[in-house]
# Entry
Amino acid sequence: MTIGIFLTPVLEEEPYLKLNMKLYKYLKNKNVKVIGITDKSQVDFCDGVILPGGFNYLDEELETIEALYEQDIPTLGICMGMQLMGIFKNGKCELLPNKKHQTTKKKAHQVQIKKDSILYEILKEETLTVNSRHNEGLVKTDLEVIAYSNDGVIEAITDSSKKFFVGIQWHFEDMDLEKNDILDYFIFCSQE
# Structure
C-alpha cells in the first residue's frame, strides 16, 4: 500500500517543498510506503492521499483534490488541507474575527462532533478538546459539516458517498502520534 502526502510549499528567500515528517514517520511505523506528491498525475500511484496543513498551497493541490474525489481515492485533509477540500466543493474561507484559533496551546478549544458522522465512528466522542493553529476558517461548503468549534467555526467536513473523504481543521497528528485513531482508520480505508 502506498500513501501520498502532498508536499507543502515553504516560501522563504529560497522557496522549497516540505514533507510533513510526523505523518511520514507514523505511516512508516505502520509499514506503509509513503511518497511525496505535487500534482494530480501522481495520484494513480496512491491508495490514499493526505493533504497536510501549512501556510501556503500550490494551485495544483485543488486539481489534485478534484482527481482524488473523482477517482474515489481515500483523502484526508488537515488544517489548510481541509479548507482546500471545502473550497473544492463550492466553499469559502475567511479570516477569523478572533485570535483564539491561532495559538500554540496543546488544548485550545472544544469541538462538537455530530454523533451520526464518520468522525464520531472513529473517535467515539461528541466533544473533544483540540489544538488550533489557523487564522482563517471555512465558512461555507457543499460538503457535509460534521464538527464545529464552540464559536461556530467549521472543524470537520466529509462526503459520506466516498470511501473516505474527510477534512479536519485541527492538527490531530500533534495530539497523539503513539496511537492515532484518525490515521489508523484512514490507513484501513486506503487498504480496501
Q: What stands out?
A: The chain has a mean pLDDT of 89. The two ends are 10 Å apart (CA to CA). The CA atoms of residues 15 and 137 lie 25 Å apart.
